[in-house]
Amino acid sequence: MKALRLLTLCASGLLLLAAINSCAPQPAASDPTSPPATSAPVAAATATNSPAATATNPSAATATSAPATADLKGDMIRGGKLYDTWWTEIAKDAPKDDMPLFKTQTTDKTTGASTWRCAECHGWDYKGVDGVFAKGSHMTGFKGILADLGKDPSVILAALKGKTNPDHDFSKVMAEQDLVDLALFVSKGTMDMNTVLNQDGTPKGVAADGKEKFDKVCAACHGPNGNAINFKTPGSVEYLAHTSNSNSWQFLHRMRFGIAVWPMPAAIDNKFSDQDLANVLAYARTLPKDGAKASGGGQLYDKWYSVLAVKTPDGDMPLWKNQTTNTRKGASTWTCRECHGLDYLGAAGMYATGAHKTGFPGIFAAAAKSEQDLTAALKGQTDPKHDFSKVLNDAQISALVHWVKNEMFDVASKVKPDGVSVDGDKVHGQALFEQTCIQCHGKDGKLLNFKTPDAPEYVGTVASTQPQDCMHRVAFGVPGFPMSAAIDLGMSVQDIADVCAYSQTLPVK
Ligand code: HEC
Ligand code: HEC
Ligand code: HEC
Ligand code: HEC
Known about the structure:
Cytochrome Bc1 Complex, Chain D, domain 2
């Protein structure tokens, strides 16, 4: 479809002298409605033909024929991600000071890194003072950038290098290609969001009509209910239902361009029409805000300080010195998994021997205990040395208790007597893998490397060497990373075993 579309564009472009960029060799066409499954994060999909941009601004297409733009080659989708949070996309530390221009206004009290975000000054609707940020806590009075849609990107590039205002110079913090991508985004990627949204942010779409696209594209990662990835912390959840209701403009921007770093497909690459965008947003707004199967307790159990992004605990957990066989020190002695195991059986399971052996008991049988008893155990009321109430709040402890009682499953029963092979149906596992996991991990599981280029670790590596890790993390997600919890993708325990059994056949290096 993409190729077809470009063909017509190129043909008419002969007359319009337009789509010079678009006629350049393109990456292989993909099915427009399905996410770019195996493809690496959005390749330089010149994407000059954003449907929205051309629809709402017919002059935009011709403007790209300006001779100077032929020199600017880049990825306007990536530009959209940079517009959102550029330092995340370029993997730099967030700026600590305020952006110099920010002090030329006094109404927006934001300080620090956020004052460096394009969206903080120019708005998620790209309209600055003429749009949503005309009032409220984000009001700065700064102008928008929507008028630059269709402008020569090299002129925009100059503005980003401080030509019009030396304080608007981003060349000190970003590389040339980043600025080019941003300029292409400003020139070709923005849209008048009023074509999709009403003044109050409600979408001009029909929820029921958005379900099909949502299920086909978004559900693979966010789950059919939009709650397989929690953007916040356990006990204080934020799912697509929340963000679609709280900020339609930001949601729309992120849906169209994806988000920094992680392989979320851009709706622009999937050729969503304006109507599709409105419908999917409308549908997202109807999804449940609670009732996710994964409370997040499973991730807390795994490594609570990564989930909460807090400082790692100092010293050893007080109970640690009751054993001598496991010689680890420091933070990891504070993780539930290190003492109780990822099969939840403690000394009776995978940690009965080996370097993780502590002799501490499992908790699998504790699922039968009352919520009160479990809460008491975690707050140190049964053993003062087993007190987590100083590092976890009540909501987090309650997520852990919920997890113990309702989500923990018999991992050990899915590992064969050899201690490594997962007892599952690989053929079924492959089908599941290709519906969901492939979106982030790629067909061979090698798209994300969890370690270093020299000593890589992929899905296949983890599954083959640590089957319990695979099952626990597939089911509940990975602490500190946006991985979908499979139980909210609709998978059963057997499905999870099947997918890990299949993952054991994937390349390990
Ligand atoms: C602290 C607020 C602030 C931030 C952050 C900011 N800008 Fe601006 N921008 C302005 C102001 C104010 C102007 C008005 C003209 C000037 O002073 O250069 C402007 C002008 C522009 C213009 C020229 C608009 C025109 O038609 O004159 C573009 C394009 C632009 N900004 C894009 C961006 C992009 C892309 C980013 C993110 C890398 C960004 N801006 C970050 C405040 C900001
Ligand atoms: C390949 C997996 C994947 C697919 C497919 C996907 N997303 Fe995402 N999405 C993510 C990840 C990962 C995050 C980032 C979560 C984080 O940073 O905590 C995210 C974040 C988001 C956010 C930002 C959170 C917020 O609301 O501020 C929005 C909006 C969003 N997705 C909407 C969608 C929509 C709508 C679709 C379908 C059109 C979709 N996503 C498809 C993986 C995906
Ligand atoms: C340093 C090792 C260690 C760590 C870390 C640890 N525990 Fe324990 N846990 C124990 C020991 C030992 C017991 C047995 C009772 C006691 O001595 O407190 C226990 C008991 C329990 C019990 C009660 C079991 C029963 O049958 O009554 C639960 C539930 C529990 N732990 C859950 C957790 C969770 C959840 C975490 C993480 C927040 C955690 N533990 C972290 C060592 C640890
Ligand atoms: C929304 C994107 C996304 C989806 C969908 C996804 N994962 Fe992941 N996965 C991640 C991220 C991110 C990481 C952590 C990356 C890192 O550590 O650098 C990860 C890590 C893992 C790990 C390593 C865990 C460990 O012990 O370190 C395994 C195994 C894994 N995923 C398997 C799967 C399987 C199987 C599926 C399908 C059921 C799946 N993932 C679906 C994003 C995803």
